[in-house]
Design goal:
The protein is globular, with a radius of gyration of 19 Å. The protein has helices at 19-32, 36-54, 64-72, 76-97, 104-118, 143-161, 180-189, and strands at residues 123-128, 132-138, 168-170, 173-179. Helix 1 packs across helix 2 (36-54) and helix 4 crosses helix 6. Strand 3 (168-170) and strand 4 form a beta hairpin. Helices cover 57% and strands 12% of the residues. The protein has a 4-stranded antiparallel beta sheet with strand order 1-2-4-3.
Length: 190
């Protein structure tokens, strides 16, 4: 079973750390209002869930302001097409490399954890109601980033689950409603 959520069973692991780094860890833990042990668990979780996979292939980190400057030079149509192309390939690879099944739960986890929490693409709010499952993806880049994200997520759901979505695009967010019946159909067909 993939280790995306820990079982709650812990082990004691002892290791040495540079004194200067320990001071930084203590300061950061105090700033966050948590223990050093809790901070180290967050760091280990980031590595287990995300960073170890990024380390296996060429990856770059870019600040949102730099990305926004790049997006300003690209047409909305080209951004939409790039999002569609990326959404066809990258999510499936991300899930398969982690040993995850290609289902709704895995895609929801990918959106929240990998693209949201660790990727910094957006902040994620998601809710399940009697009628639909909602993802509200907030960011502070520009409408062109909303276009890319919308196209990427749409392509991902269409290619992996055969679910067509019609996201609402705003300047700084994308909202996606997926009818519960679509989710149930995708579970039964896969």
């Amino acid at each position: 079973m993939p280790a995306h959520e820990p079982s709650g069973v812990t082990v004691t692991r002892t290791f040495r750390v540079e004194k200067d780094w320990d001071e930084i860890l203590k300061e950061e833990a105090q700033w966050q209002g948590i223990s050093v042990s809790a901070l180290l668990n967050l760091i280990v979780r980031r590595y287990v869930v995300s960073q170890r996979f990024l380390d296996r292939s060429p990856t770059i980190t870019i600040q949102d302001k730099e990305l926004d400057l790049l997006l300003k030079k690209i047409s909305e149509n080209d951004i939409e097409n790039a999002g569609m192309d990326s959404g066809l390939l990258l999510p499936e690879e991300a899930l398969l490399s982690r040993g995850f099944p290609l289902n709704f739960e895995s895609l929801a986890w990918l959106i929240e954890e990998i693209y949201g929490r660790y990727g910094g693409w957006f902040e994620v709010d998601h809710y399940a109601t009697d009628k639909h499952y909602l993802f509200h993806l907030r960011h502070n880049i520009s409408k062109k980033w909303s276009i890319y994200v919308s196209s990427f997520i749409s392509s991902m759901f269409t290619s992996l689950l055969d679910i067509d979505i019609d996201p609402e695009i705003r300047e700084d967010s994308v909202t996606i409603y997926i009818p519960n019946k679509e989710i149930e159909l995708s579970k039964n067909e896969k």
